[in-house]
Each structure stands twice: as C-alpha cells, then as structure tokens.
Amino acid sequence: MEPDQWLAQYGQKIEQAKREAAQTEAKLGGVGGSATSPDGLITVTVNASGALTDLILRPALRGEDPERIAAAVLKAVAEAQRAAAGQVVEIVSELVGDSPALEFVKSRMPNGYSGDGTDPVEPAPEVQRRDTRPDDDYFTNPPDVMA
Question: Which positions make up the signal peptide (predicted)?
Fold first, then answer.
C-alpha cells in the first residue's frame, strides 16, 4: 500500500470516529431520567450523570413528616438515576458493543440501570386487578385482604 493511500484511509477513519463521537455526545447530552413518588406529590429529574436537575414538591406535602419526604425524594432520585443510566448504557452499547468498556460503564452505575434485570415489577392496572366474580361468589369466598 502506498503511503499516501494509507494516510488517506487513516484520515477517513479519524473523520468517521469524530462523527461517531459527536453523535454520541449529542445523544448523551439529551439523556435524563425522572421519577414521581407513588402518591404523585414528589417529582425529580436527573441528568446523564445522575445529578438532580429538578425537584417538584406539591403543596399537599405541607405538614408531612420531613423524614418521610426525604426518604421519598431519595427513592425517586434513585429511580430517576436508574432510568438515566439505562439510557447511557444503551447509547454506550451502540458505540462499543458488548465489550469490557460497556461492562466498565455498567459497573459504575451506583443504582444499577433500567433493564439490568432488577427492575421492580409494575403492578397490573387496577382494571385487571378487579375481582369480577358475581356477588354471591365474592361474599361466599371473599379475597384475603390481610396478608
């Protein structure tokens, strides 16, 4: 191979790497996660690194126990961080594939990442959870409500 040809190919590879890096940077810039407490009174948003970027506390929280509020905020932040981390893992996976670099990124996620197999199971919608048995059957064999 001629030196000029080799240099041209090398230059093309560098330009391709620059384009891929710019695309990845743009994708990572848009990463974020948010979560809301089960009661809907607390909503948090985090950026790609998991840093808190927004915190919404609804007025109905006035008078609530501060420790309960703090615990709910921390739980929502952890959920939002998992969501953002899942996006980061997906983007890095597209860039480097299944590699030691991807495993390194995964290992640095303090709360894991969405899709890591430890996600909580979402409860079925209320419509699917309703007991639709006839009243006679329901009252003859009531559901076990005390576990």
Answer: none
3-state secondary structure of 146: coil
pTM over 0.90: no
Residue 126 region by backbone torsions, left for phi larger than 0, else alpha for psi between -120 and 50, else beta: alpha
Domains and CATH numbers, the chain: 26-115 (3.30.1310.10)
Angle formed by the axes of helices 66-96 and 3-29, nearest 10°: 160
Partners of 46 in beta bridges: 33, 52
pLDDT in tens, 67-113: 999 999 999 999 999 999 999 898 888 888 888 988 888 888 888 88
